[in-house]
Amino acid sequence: MNARNVTIRVDGEDKAVTDKDGVYYLTFDNLPGTFKIEALNEKFHFEPISVRIDENLRQIPDIVAKSVFICGRVSMLDPVELKYAISTEQREIYMEQQPNPRIGETWETPGIREKLLPKRTTTTNADGKFCFSANLGLWKVWIQLS
Question: Nearest Cα to 66, choosing from 98, 37, 44?
Fold first, then answer.
């Protein structure tokens, strides 16, 4: 997955923004040198990297998202008007990490239960919105209705 519109910061100064393919270009004036490179975006969390760059280095290592924000809004179907309306009542939202079959994981994979994060909960705000920060992987999200 490519992260578009990610701000790339070098030594505390914004230097580039990723394009639709997650690509960005940087130029460095003071070479050789070691630079702290950060990626900033409201939907992803990235760990900063420190890179030693000289005239021969043409590509820096990929900056990979450590976690993502899973956000949503609860709306309910009004049975009389047959329209959706934002739920203003606080709702419990649950999230649980699942085995990822894309990489061969199942519930029978040895050690899988220890590897996966435990179930987490949050509540919606007055506008029906919620957000979780989640490690990369497969997650199941559901809403508790009363």
Answer: 44
Residues 6+ apart with CB under 8 A from 67: 44, 45, 133, 134, 135, 136
Q: Are the C-beta atoms of residues 92 and 128 closer than 8 Å to each other?
A: no
User: Terminal CA-to-CA distance of the chain, rounded, Å?
Assistant: 36
Express each pLDDT in 11-68 by its tens digit. Answer: 999 999 999 998 999 988 888 999 999 999 988 889 999 999 888 887 888 888 888 8
- pTM for this entry: 0.64
| CA neighbours closer than 13 Å in the CB half-sphere of residue 6 | 26
